[in-house]
Amino acid sequence: MLFGKTFEHGIHPDDYKSLTNGLPIRRLPFAPTLVLPLQQHTGKPSIALVKPGEEVVRGQPIAKADGAMSVPLHAPATGLIKDIDLRPTAKGPKAPSIILQVYQGDPQQEAYEHPKDVDAMTPAEIRQAVWDSGMVGLGGAAFPTHIKMTPPPEHQVDTLVVNGCECEPYLTCDHRLMLEQPANLIQGIKYFMKALQVKRAIIGVEDNKMDAVHAIAAELQKHPGSGIEVQAVKTKYPQGAEKMLIKAVLNRKVPPASLPSSIGVSIFNVGTLTQLGELLPSGRGVIQRVITVSGTGIKKPGNYLTPVGTPVRFLLEYAGITDKAFQVVLGGPMMGMSVSSLDVPVTKAMSGMVVMEEQQDRRDRPIHPCIRCGWCVEACPMMLNPSMLGLLASSSDYATMASDYHLNDCFECGSCSYVCPSNIPLVQYFRIAKSVNRDRAAAA
Amino acid sequence: MSQPNLKPNLRSSPHLKHPVTVEQIMRNVVYAMLPICAWSIYAFGISVALLLATTTLVAMATESLFCRLSGRASSIGDWSVVITGILLGLTLPPGFPLWMAAVGAFVAVGLGKSLFGGLGYNVMNPALVGRAFVQAAFPVAITTWTPPFLPGRFVELIPSTLTLPFTRPVPVDAWIEQQQIDAFSGATPLALHKFDQISTPVSDLLTGMVAGSAGETSALLIIAGGVYLAARKFMDWRIPVSVLLGALLIALPLWLLDSAKYPDPLFVLMSGGLMLGAVFMASDMVASPVTPWGVWVYGLFIGILTVIIRQFGGLTEGVMYAILLGNVLSPLISSVTQSRIFGER
Lengths: 444, 345
Prior knowledge:
Distance between the termini of chain A: 51 Å
CATH superfamily of the largest domain in chain A: NADH-ubiquinone oxidoreductase 51kDa subunit
CATH class of the largest domain in chain A: Alpha Beta
Radius of gyration of chain B: 22 Å
Largest sheet of chain A: 6 strands, mixed
Shape of chain B: globular
Radius of gyration of chain A: 22 Å
Strand content of chain B: under 5%
Number of domains of chain A: 2
Oligomer: heterodimer
Strand content of chain A: 15-25%
Number of helices of chain A: 13
Helix content of chain B: 55-70%
Number of strands of chain A: 17
Structural class of chain A: alpha/beta
Order of helices and strands of chain A: EEEEEEEEHHEHHEHEHEHEEHEEEHHHHH
CATH architecture of the largest domain in chain A: 3-Layer(aba) Sandwich
């Protein structure tokens, strides 16, 4: 079972997971002020339901979905709405956010509960309940979960794949969730199997987390005939990319520019399903999540159950930074974004905060011309030719990159930049190329 | 709780980086060639030491000169020019006049590399460009061989080594006769086979007990260097393997057809410059394809062409031209062998 379950190519960066994978999930205290961007998901921003000066109770909806491609937002703490204003976000530009002053000393009971019998609900009702919870892909994609639960009608989904790979270095929050809350995970999977009307579910976990595989397998013993199985897959980056995981566990390949549902698969992150296993029966919304705080720039690494809206500055104060701290990365170090402002808040889809040393990315090295060693070609999980794409990028031939060399099939995992011995910032070039192409298409 | 005193820096992902650099790859290729150099000096004497020093130093000086002329920072530090210098030296006859070797090194780096834009932009393997130039310019000197393990090799230079520039090299036959009792034919194993139908034992080819270019005679050390580089992933193992496979593909049927006329396949693989070419020259990253299938096409092409030139051409050795042609074709090979991307049908 350990051999062969993987995809072609990929890389093996040091994983640094031992910094936090033995540390149980702990609750982070409430920051005095929470910042809640109205857009924490892919799609349209939510519409605020509250006004400055209004008091809110923990769990109360404070913003509603603006159409189908949007989700509601709930108050992560009992407190006072101070303002609705522009605040810095991880992506860079300031965005409309609800500023919530937390009542210190309040017991922070979650008042908004609507207990439901999920087992008696229809698939459509479960989907509605997921939407009402404000759930988005907690693995980092931030795509509204209820949309992913509704594949195009011409697609016949037969298998639910659950992503427990956590292939990004440093991150261990999903690992801890699988170890500590396997019952919630199985519950969430059962709800989704019902909603998607599938008989089979496969949980894919990288084989550097065999304790989690065993914990889930032990839990599954209590659910005979559930159609749920757990599979260990090879530890390799980017095993957690959805196309790569589906290839590993089902040996099916999602065609370029297609959805997993086109080959009969729906795929969700373990964090998403674990939390929904707990939220759906109580009818509550997403107000907190587990994030991994790690890196050699951090004094007290750990996995913290963190209220949504907690400013990065508060996390840094709580965990402490060392002299080595150079940049703060939200998410994992391979695909995560480094922030320019410590006032950026924790959002629903943020899986980690890694404080890194200066030369871990070795940008001090000179950039040499491409020597065509082919390492990037051997690394690219999409079988692209990053070497050729890089040469085209250096002559700004962005149109050919897209038309002849599949630029748009690059999902920016960064493996090519990671391996390049010439230190060429390949994936960075590709991002620029894509955005120039987008702008040109928009202008045309 | 203290206020974090941090001005975060903004960089784009990935924020981790593999430690291996171009310099490290190139340096390791040099390491892999050092045993071959040492054995060559041991077998042929101080002339080879001077030959290798000349090609390497002139190659470095040329790179430095062209960098200065074009206003770029010196690229000597990336070690690639050292490879070119040593490789060129290894492909020359042990008694090759030093001034000719210097011309070869200048052409190799100047014409073969710097004029194209330096590392990464050369179309052909620079060392082979230099080798092809001296082959055309000095046809006699390039085919003047001396036997290995002459008794006086550590105290005397081969007389042709110190030939004055633009003069005819001193003939070496008299010196060789004075050095050893047995008469020496002055021919390489390939020439012996081609023109006199004399086969050289494979054990001699493996250890380098034969005449030939400075670095091509010991197949064993070349293979060892290749295995080291392949194991550390500093060389694409598929290239030497496909070159040798390509050579076998032609040599084996020929030998089965007429074993009196054609050499046995093991001899084909071990003799001449094929092993050195397959391991250290065809595998030149810059001048070989990057696509997984392209690598096989390129290697097979070189191997097949080498044997065709050897058996049916006027030359005794074909590996140099085969690799140069393979180099020139490699962009084309790359572009017609693009992989199907993930999920593409």
